Hints:
2 copies of one chain form a homodimer.
Chain A: H1 5-8, E1 16-18, E2 21-24, E3 29-32, E4 35-36, H2 41-51, E5 57-59, H3 60-67, H4 78-93, E6 97-103, E7 107-114
Antiparallel strand pairs in A: 1-2, 2-3, 3-4, 5-7, 6-7
The structure holds a DNA duplex.
Amino acid sequence: MTSLQSFTSRRTGAIMRLGELEVRPDELQVLAGSRRVGLTTREFQVFLVLAERCDRVVLRPDIYELVWGGRMSRRDRSVDVFVRRVRGKLSIASPGWAYIHTHFGIGYRFSPERIGD
Amino acid sequence: MTSLQSFTSRRTGAIMRLGELEVRPDELQVLAGSRRVGLTTREFQVFLVLAERCDRVVLRPDIYELVWGGRMSRRDRSVDVFVRRVRGKLSIASPGWAYIHTHFGIGYRFSPERIGD
DNA sequence: CCGGCCCGTGAACGAGCGGTTACCAAGTGG
DNA sequence: CCACTTGGTAACCGCTCGTTCACGGGCCGG
Lengths: 117, 117
């Protein structure tokens, strides 16, 4: 039910504003101010799964299921790696902000927070 | 039947409110107001076993069985230690409240109570 | 065919967690 | 008041989990 389908089929398209970010689901684009973050499709999917659940902790297997579909194998590092890449691009486009927070042994949480620049 | 399984398989997800606390089983999170308590998975399991049985005394071996599964060995102090850790984090996130009460020689009881700040 | 980008995997490393133990304080009964 | 039981606390260590880097295959455009 909740799977990758939700990305392609659902077209809410509602533009979201989160911290400095402007998210355009229709375009698979994220803007920081006027700067384009430049996420790839996979990166954007991971980003969106978290951003749509702002301030909530999303379990690692749930992220996998929502983006890739199917069950996450025990040692699959995909989620980590893409979270890292998203973080990297966000920190470049929007320095002074932290967006994705780690919950050890649980998952990740999207919450825009100002940090020391 | 009631074992660790109940944590992962059961997804009631019903948010509970207890005293100042908001419990989100889906996220393995507890909030005190807007403050995040930050329990680890084990700590959260112990917390939940008690919180779900609010105002009832839960025997020490029962806690062990529900969280760890299997029988508690005579000198196992795991329950004590994790109750202490949960208490510690709760008291930081929600001062002025006492949540977990000791019943000597029996077990623990979860009941939100105001105390001197 | 070639070059660049994207995706996924594997390994190394460090941080954080979980379970144990030892010691001390508190409670209980004679 | 003392001996004994039970709970509280802190420190410790092995190991899981997260982060990061590096590499190779796949895809696409030129």
